[in-house]
């Protein structure tokens, strides 16, 4: 007995029988990411976690590889990492946390400018992974933890800046005293005092 015919209407849209094969679209569609951070996740993976050093747990991505190209590589990697910052803004993250994320990106950019050593340091700093973790923690409802860690982060930066300023002022005072003492000794030796 033949199968019964389906009643089709003219405006009926049938689902495709075979899905299109596109690895990037499949990865975006398969990620269970209710907040829509799939692009940020993919960028974080490719920029910071793509490859593993054999025999170790040290992972690195394209960011330190691009950092080997002076100036241009860091700019390209940082530009790609900015997408994570856009996702953070889109999700309504507060300005202090956003500035912390931007400082992570800026620090990674500055680290990468040091020839050779900057690329190595970028393997361990991983600003994109740090920013993604901050974003996901914020979106997962751990806002209090993110705010507290951000407060500690800024407190640490202020303490570091105060220490640097203290060292500069101390060095300035010591060098001024040494210069003044040396000038007095020279003037005294020349008979001008």
UniProtKB/TrEMBL annotation:
<keyword id="KW-0472">Membrane</keyword>
<protein>
    <submittedName>
        <fullName>DUF4112 domain-containing protein</fullName>
    </submittedName>
</protein>
<feature type="transmembrane region" description="Helical">
    <location>
        <begin position="106"/>
        <end position="125"/>
    </location>
</feature>
<dbReference type="Pfam" id="PF13430">
    <property type="entry name" value="DUF4112"/>
</dbReference>
<keyword id="KW-1133">Transmembrane helix</keyword>
<keyword id="KW-0812">Transmembrane</keyword>
<dbReference type="InterPro" id="IPR025187">
    <property type="entry name" value="DUF4112"/>
</dbReference>
<feature type="transmembrane region" description="Helical">
    <location>
        <begin position="153"/>
        <end position="175"/>
    </location>
</feature>
<feature type="transmembrane region" description="Helical">
    <location>
        <begin position="65"/>
        <end position="86"/>
    </location>
</feature>
């Amino acid at each position: 007995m033949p199968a019964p015919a389906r009643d089709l209407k003219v405006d009926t849209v049938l689902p495709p029988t075979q899905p299109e094969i596109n690895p990037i679209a499949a990865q975006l569609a398969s990620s269970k990411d209710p907040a829509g951070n799939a692009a940020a996740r993919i960028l974080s993976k490719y920029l910071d976690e793509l490859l593993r050093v054999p025999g170790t747990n040290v992972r690195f991505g394209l960011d330190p590889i691009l950092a080997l190209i002076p100036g241009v590589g860091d700019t390209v990697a940082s530009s790609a990492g900015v997408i994570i910052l856009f996702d953070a803004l889109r999700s309504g993250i507060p300005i202090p946390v956003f500035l912390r994320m931007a400082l992570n990106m800026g620090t990674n950019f500055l680290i990468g400018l040091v020839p050779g050593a900057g690329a190595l340091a970028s393997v361990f700093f991983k600003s994109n992974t740090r920013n993604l973790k901050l974003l996901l923690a914020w979106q997962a409802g751990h806002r209090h933890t993110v705010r507290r860690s951000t407060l500690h982060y800024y407190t640490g930066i202020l303490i570091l800046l105060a220490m640097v300023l203290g060292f500069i002022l101390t060095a300035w005072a010591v060098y001024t005293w040494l210069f003044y003492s040396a000038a007095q000794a020279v003037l005294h030796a020349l008979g001008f005092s």
